Amino acid sequence: MSLNTFDALDGALLIDKPAGPTSHDIVDIVRRSYRIKKVGHCGTLDPAATGLLTLLLGKATKLSEKLMSDDKVYVGSIKLGETTNTYDAEGQIETTQPVPELTLEALQDQANKFLGDQMQLPPMVSAIKIDGTPLYKLARKGKEVERKERFIHLYKFLISAYEPPFVWFKVACTKGTYVRSLAHDLGQALGCGAHLAGLRRTVSGKFKISGATTLEELTNLSPADLAKRVVPILKLSAPAT
User: pLDDT by residue (tens digit) across 152-166?
Assistant: First the structure.
């Protein structure tokens, strides 16, 4: 295609999502505020999670599948000693257990066992659909159904700090990785249970959180200023160098 087939708003808009709104809420805000008919996102963030949300505008929405396959980096915290039905702090506490004496080194040794290729079971409270119905809708009705494990790869699982009962970490992983499940599985391996206490996405593919616009900034931009924040579609579709 020639350059003049695209306009200034055909591309990617990087948003620093706050805790609270869903990823779809952010899409709606952009669509309504700037009257852009086609807006999508690459990789859902849970409402409580913050960080990098890549929006695709206009003709760039056709690149969604390509960009969703990118690797991701997250930082966050895990609370030991409590499991929840959602594997994160938003759910109901299911079990409580005493936390054993642990060192940063012991935690890192356990985290290292999760590195590499593996199969991961998605949590019931997730957007994965079974016969057209999202799992989280079934979970709200108290139903639990069989889920298929997913192939994922963890490049890095770094334990950066430990102040009982909280563990701080950094994870680099492939698409489709549920960090909530990783937190839950770490707790099971440690014998005390755990859930994800907080999560922030800092990298998605070649994009970093440092280049993102906050929601507050976004709602105060003129259309011309918004265009300056958009990564042009030609840069998105260009091969990696």
Answer: 999 999 999 999 999
